[in-house]
Amino acid sequence: MQESDMQRMWSSAHLSGGNAAYVEELYELYLHDPNTVPEEWRTYFQKLPANGSAAATDVSHSTVRDQFVLLAKNQRRAQPVSAGSVSSEHEKKQVEVLRLIHAHRLQGHQVAKLDPLGLAQRPVPTDLSLYSYSLTDSDLDTTFRTGGLAIGKEEATLREILQALQETYCRTIGSEFTHIVDSSQREWFQQRLESVRGRPNYSSEIKGHLLERLTAAEGLEKYLGTKYPGTKRFGLEGGESLIPMLDEIIQRSGSYGTKEVVIGMAHRGRLNVLVNTFGKNPRDLFDEFEGKKVEGLSSGDVKYHQGFSSNVMTQGGEVHLALAFNPSHLEIVSPVVEGSVRARQDRRGDVSGDKVLPVSIHGDAAFAGQGVVMETFQMSQTRGYKTGGTVHIVINNQVGFTTSRQDDARSTEYATDVAKMIQAPILHVNGDDPEAVLFVTQLAIDYRMQFKRDVVIDLVCYRRRGHNEADEPSGTQPLMYQQIAKQRTTREQYADALVQTSALAQDAVQARIDEYRDALDNGLHVVKSLVKEPNKELFVDWRPYLGHAWTARHDTRFDLKTLQELSNKLLAVPEGVVVQRQVSKIIEDRQKMAAGGLPINWGFAETMAYATLLFEGHPVRMTGQDIGRGTFSHRHAVLHNQKDGAAYVPLQNLFEGQPRFDIYDSYLSEEAVVAFEYGYATTTPNALVIWEAQFGDFANGAQVVMDQFISSGEHKWGRLCGLTMLLPHGYEGQGPEHSSARLERYLQLCAEQNIQVCVPTTPAQVYHMLRRQVIRPLRKPLVVLTPKSLLRHKAAVSTLEDLADGSFQTVIGEIDAIEAAKVERLILCSGKVYYDLLDKRRNEGREDIAIVRIEQLYPFPEDDLTEILAPYSNLKHVVWCQEEPMNQGAWYCSQHHMRRVIAAHDSSLFLEYAGRAASASPAVGYASLHAEQQEKLLQDAFTV
Fold first, then answer.
1. Do 634 and 603 contact (CB within 8 A), yes or no?
2. Number of domain units in the chain
3. Rounded to whole angstroms, how far apart are CA atoms 366 and 327?
């Protein structure tokens, strides 16, 4: 049947009546041998839901699909013989045959021909031998029941069964799926693999397209190698099958209705993907090779770290492609991709993950070696981070830099074994068999779309050159590179095979090579499906946030009456929701705060910041360990019903049609979670995106994200991000691990107004700071050192008027009525120590000392500090006081800013230090010693 006939059938009869009967007959043929039905029907049948349920938008197909599933069950589910019922010799052997079938499904991959170089020598497992099952050659022509082996018949000779097993599981595809607990998923793989014996019949058109994609992959590398010899490009030579694989991922997912594909990858093959998959103009790439500077970036980055986006056309419509920017920290891009995908799905209301697909491309050494891989897998099915399944591609060069010995590279059989922790199926494939690569790619996409889970493709290939084009690999891998020197390319081997089988003429092969070379010479786009005038609705609109200079202030006021109305809605606990006693007291206190009967504390002000932003149309997303309650029990944004444990989130129930408010307690990870939230924030400019550390020092585990993305992403890649990080910080005598958020590390990263570092000390300050972060059309990461003891400190309070009419103050001057002319000592500080200094000053009745808080340490507010210092004309001492040791905290990174302001005020003044002595540890672990040090630093502030 021609495709046009098939389309007419869909539109005219909706698979009803006589057409439905015809389709059922086709499906029976498909179940018997998929290669006997036309390719368009085979593709359609492959996409049918595994459980037979119809999609919500496809109700007209539901009846036939139910019939399909019934047919499938009748065809493939022969009941195995139980050991207890075996009576004859033949039946005993029948049981052994079933065990042989299971062994091949379980271990066939161990003898599959996966290595294109043929160097990997692995012993044949005894479980794959006939002789391990009381079977001999004399049984080969005996007929046995196939026991669910999907080869189109219920009985076959042992010879046929063994041949089917070897062809399915022991050729150039090695499949691992028997570790999956869900039997429907295992049966799905068995049917799909066994029915075509691991090798579907592809049309000449598809084979020609495969060759064209391989020609493009090889052609670019050869062209660059000739034009820029010895220049680093981290070429794809040896792994060219990645390009047709990505092409199939995009086209097949597009046929499912996917609208966006987000790809993350390290540098191996990245330039090839940019040109041959994303359609980057080769001339632009050549300019980068020749050192052309990208306008608007102060530092820029090497070409094989750059991201890109474009639109391509598929059978299902236009698809937007996004390649994430990535530093040399390899796997750290994986959770960034997941965050970007989740943001896109949330924006589309794509709960199931059908519309946006994440694809992560890994190297084998990094996949096995880097812990963030495990962290990213762990988030794959969690509420706050799942994206409907990720397609993972491992470009398995069988060598990491210069490490190729397996007992040096990992402790597992395969680099991909870590994926088994979430029961992800793993499809190993020989990269020199393009049709096998195409088949596993189709399997991977269909599995992901049907089961919404991660799947891994292990593309076993090789690295024709060294780690980079200037490297000489034979010094460390002599035998491997002796073979590589003799190895014909994937394209050459496949082209010869097509010519030998008359699928393609020799002159057509050369024509493809010439056509691609001519396109490169002329600087033309080489992706034929590229959309030249893309649908802009598929893009995130960043225009309102571009071109804004740094500004500290923005109008964050909010109508007082509306503020109180929002508070009343938040505090109205629905009938039937029984809150815990302490939580009930918090709600009662907040009701008094909203009425003006109690001073406002931190928890109330923070919650009202979120409520007012939602009211003004801004989504809010919050994640972190214990973020719902708050580590120090101050937030309680999620109420837990004491009757049934159900969660009620008041901020999700403010008003009909409100923006999203998402809050998730994260799993115990920092690196992957912060990277995820960075990816989310870079894709959702109008939202407040927050990650909160349980304790500030926990963020240490995500330092690579701070260094490579948060602090430098704008200047390397032009990538804006408004991520907010809340890091509890303050010396409370809790030892070295729970005192310091390592403020100095963030300040050290500050330059060119890249990030904001704030230490708010009042509820009103946190309220206006959070509102400023979203309302101001400037997207800069915000690092906030939040308090612990100040959450309930009697002096750390604000008023309703402070929230309604105030603004964020980068510097807060003296609050007591102290005459400026009498002040001889000025103490500068940030954070909790302010309240300790204030208590000491008040207790001692000192009127010659003024205390000034610097609430924003970067960008440093020199103008605001200058203004506050102006009235103090009789200063003799200016002191910076901090709780942290001298080599930590703000002292080293911020003193030059303060000195500049002080010198301009009075050149005779010198900035002095009061704080803990330099220390290798952030804090002491003994309460008595902590108290002693705290008293001394306060005294020093008053006397040095």
1. yes
2. 5
3. 14
Per the domain annotation, does 553 fall within a domain? no
Nearest by Cα to 147 from 193, 97, 200: 97
Each residue's pLDDT tens digit, 528-548 = 889 988 887 777 888 899 989
The pTM of the full predicted model, rounded to 2 decimals, is 0.90
Q: What is the CATH number of the domain that holds 528?
A: 3.40.50.970
Cβ neighbours for 514, distance < 8 A, ≥ 6 positions apart: none
Looking at the DSSP bridge assignments, the partners of residue 622 are 663, 690
Distance (Å, whole) CA 279 – CA 146? 48
Do residues 856 and 812 lie in contact, with contact meaning Cβ atoms separated by under 8 Å? Answer: no
| In contact, 266 and 366? CB cutoff 8 Å | yes
Please say which residue of 163, 194, 225 terminates a domain.
194
Q: Give me the mean pLDDT over the 351-377 stretch.
A: 94
CB 320 within 8 A of CB 539: yes
CB burial string 2-11: b at 16+ within 10 A, e below: eeeeeeebee
Q: Give domain status of residue 652, yes or no.
A: yes
Return the SS3 of 237: coil
Please answer whether residues 837 and 851 qualify as being in contact, where contact means their C-beta atoms are separated by less than 8 angstroms: yes
CA distances from 440 to 212, 279, 515, 819, 916 (A): 19, 24, 29, 79, 61
Q: How far apart are the C-alpha atoms of 160 and 163, rounded to whole Å? A: 5
CB atoms within 10 A of CB 844: 10
- Whether residue 52 sits in one domain with residue 134: no
**Domain, as residue range, for 909:** 812-943
Instruction: Mark which of 771, 805, 839 sits at the end of a domain.
Output: 805
**pLDDT classification of 4: cutoffs 50, 70, 90:** very low
pLDDT tens digits, one per residue of 183-225: 999 999 999 999 999 999 999 999 999 999 999 999 999 998 8
The torsion defined by the Cα of 321, 322, 328 and 331, in degrees rounded to 10, comes to -80
